[in-house]
Please model this.
Amino acid sequence: MKTGVRRLALATGVIFVILIVHLTYIQAIAGERLYLNPLNPRLNLVEQQTQRGAIYDRAGRVLARTVGNPGQFQRQYPYGPATALVVGYVSGRFGSSGLEASRDGDLLGLTGWQHLLNQGRRLMGQVARGNDLTLTLDAELQRLATSLLAGRRGAAVALDPRTGAVLALASSPTFDPNRLEEEWQRINSPGAGSPLLNRAIQGLYPPGSIMKLVTATAALEVDPGILQRDFYCPGYLEVQGWKLTCPRPHGHLNFQQAMMYSCNVTFATLALEAGADKFKETAALYGFDKPLKFDLPVEESRVPGRLNASALAEGAIGQGAVLATPLQMAMVTAAIANKGILMQPYLVEKVTAAGGRLLWQAVPRPLQVVTGAKVATDIKEAMVATVNGGTATAASLPGIQVAAKTGSAQNPGGEAHAWLVAFAPADEPRIAVAVVVENAGAGGVVAAPLAREILAAALRR
Ligand SMILES: [Zn+2]
Model:
């Protein structure tokens, strides 16, 4: 009998401890997250009593602002569709998306000690003020990228390779966040092409020949001697009974020419020599197969776990099961531009209180040393040759040396996706871009002129 009581007391004690730990967790750790959950009805109330912070681009241009009086606040987006998939929207009826969702805590002033300050204001019947966000985004460049993609499905990403700052993150089709009520039905109709999807960070595409930049990195790491080697392309390569082809027999070529004419046979051969582990390892250094910390949710780019010889040969030329987001391929390009050092991409430059006081400032930081400066420079030179006399001549700019790589990614959905990645000026890169246009054919024809316009506009600033 006594042991029974003791057991009961012990069990109750244990349950009590679990309860305390759990409550502490809810209160102290999960509190902010639970509070900011869009399903929390109290948040809706806070929303009505708070003047949401504004969102600015890197030059102080307004991307989102709140007008009107408490209880009847209205959110305006001066850049409309151009910034809709980055800034997002907030609506009592349709919820929230983009930075309006991911930075809710800042915009409503619900983080840190400001939470208490604003609670005090509300209790005294005053209007609480959220914090403002200043982005790294260049709204004019973003508008240009969006207009270049208009009428097509695709995405364009522009990064500053020296810092990782995101200058443009465009996706098409898009929508007008100022007209959600009117547009909601159209936006969600099957023929609309998923305008709520940010293809730049959530679209997974076969990267096609852009992947050869990753293959080249792995191959040069294993054997720098390949720069002097003579390769031979008869137009096809048989791997385990699977036949990989080039558009034509390229004959004898060196490494640089293989990049210039995008020879599948040479790059598949290089990947087979470097081995599956080295290929996967290199892709992982560039950011594949791991989650990326970013200001918006990013889909993970992937290289399949086990690669047999034919899957490796396919992966080396960006076909098969290799999938990447446009942001991922912009990161690959930026790392080569930045001499092998991949910077952490970021979109929010600073958070300021309503009065202008700085609360938080982003600090550029390296995410990964992908490769040495020598390998990065060798690849850059091959990309320069590709612009000056290879498949990417349409990306060239007068008076500025561009480095680029084209891709035409076969896919089951029809015509190939057109890719182009580029950076400029080649010797002191200030911008790296990745452009993909869905089912548009050759990258050098369709994507290159778009990337060129974005580079030119960015370098004029
Ligand atoms: Zn070839």
The pocket of zinc ion is lined by residues 233, 246, 250, 263-265 (CB under 6 Å).
